[in-house]
Specification:
3 domains, four-stranded mixed beta sheet, 10 strands, binds acetoacetyl-coenzyme A, Butyryl-CoA Dehydrogenase, subunit A, domain 3
Length: 380
Amino acid sequence: MNFELDEELAMVRDMARDFAIQELDPRASKHDRQGFIDQEVFGQIADLGLWGLTIPEAYGGAGMGNTELSLVLEEINRADASVGVTLSVHNSLLGTPILKFGSEAKKDEWLPKLATGEAIGCYCLTEPNAGSDAAAVQTRAVRDGDDWIISGTKIWVTNGGLASIAIVYARTDPDVSKAKGLSAFLVPLDAPGVVLGAPEKKTGIRASSTLEIQFDGVRVDGDSLIGVEGQGFQIAMDTLDGGRIGIASQAVGIGRACLEASIKYAGEREQFGRPIGHFQAIQWKIADMSTRIDAARLLTWRAAQLRDKGERCSLQAAQAKLAASTACNFAADECLQIHGGAGYTDDFQVERLFRDARITEIYEGATDIQRIVIARSVMA
Ligand code: CAA
């Protein structure tokens, strides 16, 4: 057992940390206000090889795993959670299922473009009537010769406005039970019949792209089926095991930003003749924040390492996401409290952190869903 990063992992973390400090810290508030990420940042992410972090070298990626991705995502989200979720979804929700379940032809076609950021990916599972109950998907895919025709509406699609390619979950057999009737498809978003909705106006992660996508009789070739017919729900859930590690890493990153801001402010702000950090009430808040964030990070690393070994990690990923998202929101709340009135204005980054933190308890499976996954596993 080893809780230290080896030299290689520390180098990856330091590379992401330097990038976050130099390029993202100065831009994060601007990104939040303008509602999109500066184009320049996309190029910098490409230069660092982060779009293809988990894509094998044979396809032009860095050939790393979930452990490295987790380290990178913590650093990037510590600075800018909008950039963090864009990168997390691209790597874990699109690149990974193509790699694991896609045909050789589709891997050759898409992975090199995804590795460089020439193409960005998105994941289309959620629908108006299929949120937490993901198996209730109503989007249909019907065979037409060798092709498939896809029709339906997907909502809350992260990266929707940036992506060239989506993985779309659709019902191929309406006669079998909910989960078993779903299949997964790769759909280029420039295909006729794809209609993008307006960007959602979100509480937090405002610079990330989120929108509805309609698939209006979209034709894809037979090779676009990912895995086999009827395997879609399992692919969706397996993919989310990885995605949840990404969001846990995001939550650890935002939580760490809250902790660091709190320590700084507690040293600067004076009341009753001394810095507020001298008061036990503030010290205890900071002690609790630090402990919960460290615990969440260790759970996240454990889940990432398990997934890198090729083992199923649904329980560990759900535990990591539950612990990290609750630690993150606890830290954001305490951080704002420590900052008092100043934290309630946009003069400090605290109010952005508070808004960004909230989504970690909602997307890629709400906190309540993580508890279902955990309870089913430990009580089985
Ligand atoms: N890996 C592989 N297979 C899995 C699996 C996994 N992690 N989890 C479940 N399965 C399999 C099961 O073994 C089962 O197979 P069998 O029938 O052969 O036994 C099948 O899938 C059905 O599983 P369940 O009975 O557990 O399915 P359920 O309908 O009870 O749903 C759930 C379980 C956990 C509630 C699931 O619906 C869920 O996770 N819901 C939340 C959805 C979600 O996270 N959405 C996120 C959207 S994407 C997003 O948010 C991205 C973003 O914007 C950033």
